[in-house]
Amino acid sequence: MLKLPFLIAIDGPAGSGKGTVAKILSQKLDLNYLDSGAIYRLIALSSSKANINQDDARLITRHLSDVDIKFIDGQAFLNGIEVSKEIRAQEVGKIASKIAQHIEVRKQILELQRGFFYGRGLVAEGRDMTTVVFPNADLKIYLDASPKERAKRRYKQLISKGIDANITDLAEEIKARDRQDMERLYSPLLVAKTANVLNSDDLSIDQTVDKIILLLKDKH
Q1: Residue 71: other Cβ atoms inside 10 A
Q2: How far is CA 1 from the centre of its chain?
Q3: Is-above-0.85 flag for pTM?
């Protein structure tokens, strides 16, 4: 039995499965869910449509006052328009990764991210959930997977949608994204000292969820 409110923070590289795992955990435990990456993707989409230079942190932070972000029943809304599929485009992801390097932007959305922790609690996933946004989380997870495995997963995902893809190119893109996330000056992707590290290479989504639930039981 969880002592409520309870906060689970999950970090990890792109394609490690943290989004799907976090969503299932939030449903099983009846906790709120925060996809922090979706917030950056929404900002990326909005700034792209407004033709704002993604390298100009000052303009982006000023633009944030005109951006209304909401998540309703698992769908992402930008200024009242549902854009869940649009923000998953590969180009939007690249812009989001660049925007996420700006200290000013990350600081400005901290309050928005932390606002998801209410009621019974929260499962939050991203790249700095365990280190910056929720450093006092009740349970911290670093979910990892090899670049090769993550490229395979992304390849299958794209092919299933009828999108042509090259697995070698995908692996290189993933490695480049990892470097960008791990080497940025502010809030880099890293393993928190108190995080439980799980490698999902040989685990299904359900097996990964089960392992995290076992960690919860160990804490109670």
Answers
A1: 17
A2: 27
A3: yes
